[in-house]
Automatic annotation (TrEMBL):
Name of the protein: DUF262 domain-containing protein
Domain annotation GmrSD restriction endonucleases N-terminal: ranges: 10-264
UniProt-listed Pfam families: GmrSD_N
Residues forming coiled coils: none
Length: 560
C-alpha cells in the first residue's frame, strides 16, 4: 500500500474504528484555552449557516489540521496492543496508529461524548438514531484502561469521582477537566456567542448545532467538520517514531506544498507503461524548482525583504491559486480581490490551496486522472519557466525585484504578463512595470526646478527608501542598455539587500551608528552644517548655533 492523502468529514470517522496512541507520544494535555478556542471556532462556523441573514461561507465545512495515521493490519501487532480485549469486531472496524493529531481527535471525542451524555444516548441509541454511526475508540499505549475511561465519561461519573484520585493519573485528569469545561463553556461563552448571532441563549440549540456539525458528511449541505487525512503506508514501528520526531521537532511541516506533493506523486496518477519514469520525472522537476527557489538571489527578486516560506515552492501554488480566483475579475479590481484572497490564505488550518488541487483531482480515475495531473503540473512548470526567464533578463529582473521590495503582489505581474497578446514585445511589458513603479512612488515630492527630493526621513521613510532603490535600479538598467549586455553584473543584489539590513539611514552616519560621545556628536553637526550650508536658512543656522551653545546636541541633530 502507498502513502495517501484524503479529506474526511468527522461524520465519516464515526464508524467505530479504533485509534491507537503509541507510547512515544505524550498523553492528552489540551488546556481550557485550547479546548475553548476549538469550540468557539466550531460554533461560530455552525452559526454562519444557521443565521439566514448572513452570507454563507464559500466552503461548507470547517477544516481541522491534518491527521497523520498508519493502518495496523498485522494480527500479532493488534493482539499485542489490545491483549485479551482483542476480538473480531476490532479487526473488522479497523485500527490506525495516530502519528500526529491525537490531541484534536481526543478533544472531538470528548465533545461528542458530552453531547451524547446530554441527550441521554448510549451507543445503541446513537446507531439507531444516526444511521449506524458509532463513536470511534481511542487507546493510549501508556494508559491501561484509557479507552474504558473515555467511553465511560459522563457528568455524573466525574461528579462521583474523587478529584485527588484523578490527579494520580495525569491523562485522566486532563481528559476529565476538558469534558467538564466543555459543559461550562457551552453554558457561558457558547450562550454569549449564540446571542450575538441573534440565535437566542438556548443551551439545547447550542448542543444541537455542535451535534449536527460533527455528524455532517462530506456532502452535507448544512456544514461539517473535516480533516486532511495523511495516511502512511504500513511500515516498521521504528520508522513511525522517526516520522513523529521529525514532525514534532519542526524538521518537516505539512504545509500545502507537502500535501500537494503527495497528491501529485500518488502512484494511481501514473497509469501508462512508463508510469515510473513519469513519476520520477515529476519528482525531479519538483526538486529542481525547490532548489532554484532556495537560491536567495532568485527568491529575493520575487519576494519582499524579510518574507520567506518553509517550502518556497508554495509560492508557485499560491500564485496559481490566485490566478484561478482572479481570472474573471477586471484588472482594476485585482488589488482589493488579492487582499481578500490573502486574508483567506492566512488561515492555514483551512489548507485552501491543497483543497484547490484535491477537489481538482477528486473523482477522476485512470487516463482522466493522469491527464488532469499532467495539465496541472504543466501549469506549474510554465509559471516557473516564466519566472526563470524574468530572472535571466537583467532589466526585467531589476524592475520586478524593485516592485517586490515595494510590496507589489507578484500575482498581478504574472497575470498581466499572461494576458498580454503574443504579438506584444518585451518593451511593452517593461513599460507596464515602469507604470507600476510610478504607482508605488506616488508619495514622492519632487522639486523639478531645483532637482530636489522634498520628502523627509522622519515623515516619508518608506517613500525615500523606494526612491533610493529606484535610483539604483535606474542606473543599472541605463548602463545595461548602453552596453546591450545580459550580464549578471547589471542585476541588483536583492539577496544582499535582504541579508544586510540596509536602510535609508545608511546614508546618514548618525542614524547608522547612533553617536554616544559628545565629541562625536559635535563633529557630526559641524560636518553636516558645512555640507548643507547652501540649503540651511538663516533662522535654522541661528537655531543650530544656539543649540550648540546650550549643549543641546540631540536637538541640533534633529534640526539637521
Amino acid at each position: 500500500m502507498d502513502n495517501s492523502i484524503n479529506q474526511y468529514a468527522i461524520g465519516e470517522l464515526l464508524d467505530g474504528r479504533y485509534f491507537y496512541i503509541p507510547s512515544y507520544q505524550r498523553g492528552y494535555r489540551w488546556t481550557e484555552k485550547q479546548v475553548g478556542d476549538l469550540l468557539r471556532d466550531l460554533l461560530c462556523f455552525a452559526n454562519d449557516f444557521a443565521n439566514e441573514g448572513k452570507e454563507k461561507k464559500q466552503e461548507q465545512f470547517y477544516c481541522l489540521q491534518p491527521i497523520i495515521a498508519r493502518p495496523i493490519t498485522n494480527e500479532d501487532k493488534l493482539k499485542s496492543i489490545f491483549g485479551t480485549e482483542y476480538n473480531e469486531s476490532i479487526q473488522s472496524h479497523g485500527v490506525w496508529e495516530i502519528i500526529d493529531g491525537q490531541q484534536r481527535l481526543t478533544t472531538i471525542f470528548l465533545l461528542y461524548k458530552y453531547l451524547l451524555d446530554q441527550k441521554g444516548w448510549d451507543a445503541e441509541t446513537l446507531k439507531e438514531e444516526e444511521d449506524g454511526k458509532e463513536l470511534y475508540h481511542i487507546y493510549y499505549a501508556t494508559r491501561d484502561g484509557s479507552s474504558q475511561f473515555l467511553e465511560g465519561l459522563t457528568i455524573k461519573t466525574i461528579e462521583d469521582s474523587d478529584e485527588e484520585s484523578l490527579k494520580d493519573n495525569v491523562d485522566y485528569y486532563h481528559m476529565a477537566n476538558a469534558f467538564k469545561y466543555i459543559g461550562k463553556w457551552i453554558k457561558t461563552d457558547g450562550k454569549t456567542i449564540n446571542i450575538r448571532y441573534q440565535l437566542g441563549g438556548s443551551l439545547d440549540n447550542i448542543r444541537t448545532s455542535f451535534f449536527k456539525l460533527l455528524n455532517g458528511m462530506s456532502d452535507t449541505k448544512g456544514g461539517s467538520v473535516q480533516v486532511l487525512w495523511y495516511e502512511i503506508a504500513e511500515i516498521k514501528e521504528k520508522n513511525n517514531i522517526k516520522e513523529f520526531q521529525k514532525i514534532n521537532t519542526g524538521k518537516i511541516r505539512l504545509t500545502d506544498a507537502e500535501l500537494i506533493k503527495g497528491l501529485f506523486l500518488l502512484k494511481k496518477n501514473f497509469t501508462s507503461g512508463d508510469k515510473y519514469i513519469k513519476q520520477s520525472e515529476l519528482a525531479l522537476e519538483w526538486e529542481y524548482i525547490e532548489n532554484t527557489l532556495h537560491a536567495n538571489n532568485f527568491w529575493y527578486f520575487l519576494q519582499k525583504k524579510g518574507y520567506d516560506m518553509p517550502n518556497r515552492i508554495d509560492l508557485l501554488f499560491n500564485l496559481i491559486y490566485k490566478k484561478n480566483a482572479l481570472k474573471e475579475i477586471p484588472e482594476i479590481e485585482w488589488d482589493s480581490k488579492i487582499k481578500e484572497i490573502d486574508a483567506r490564505l492566512m488561515d492555514t488550518r483551512q489548507s485552501e490551496i491543497f483543497r484547490f488541487y484535491y477537489n481538482r483531482f477528486e473523482g477522476k480515475m485512470g487516463e482522466d486522472l493522469q491527464q488532469e495531473v499532467a495539465v496541472a503540473w504543466d501549469e506549474v512548470m510554465e509559471l516557473f519557466r516564466t519566472l526563470d526567464d524574468w530572472f535571466c533578463t537583467p532589466s526585467i529582473y531589476n524592475y520586478i525585484g524593485l516592485l517586490s521590495q515595494c510590496g507589489e503582489d507578484l500575482c498581478r505581474l504574472v497575470l498581466h504578463f499572461e494576458y498580454m497578446p503574443e504579438t506584444i514585445c518585451r518593451d511593452d511589458f517593461e513599460k507596464y512595470l515602469k507604470e507600476r513603479i510610478s504607482y508605488h512612488l506616488r508619495g514622492a515630492k519632487i522639486d523639478d526646478e531645483n532637482k530636489q527630493i522634498l520628502n523627509t526621513y522622519d515623515k516619508d521613510h518608506d517613500t525615500i527608501y523606494k526612491l533610493l532603490l529606484t535610483l539604483n535600479i535606474h542606473l543599472l538598467n541605463e548602463q545595461n542598455q548602453k552596453l546591450e549586455s545580459e550580464s549578471d553584473v547589471y542585476k541588483f543584489p536583492f539577496d544582499v539587500l535582504s541579508a544586510q539590513n540596509w536602510d535609508i539611514e545608511h546614508i546618514d552616519s548618525f542614524h547608522t551608528n547612533a553617536l554616544k560621545k559628545e565629541k562625536d556628536k559635535r563633529e557630526w553637526i559641524k560636518t553636516a552644517m558645512a555640507d548643507r550650508k547652501d540649503e540651511l536658512k538663516d533662522d535654522e543656522v541661528a537655531a543650530l548655533k544656539q543649540k550648540l551653545d546650550e549643549n543641546a546636541l540631540d536637538d541640533a541633530i534633529n534640526i539637521l
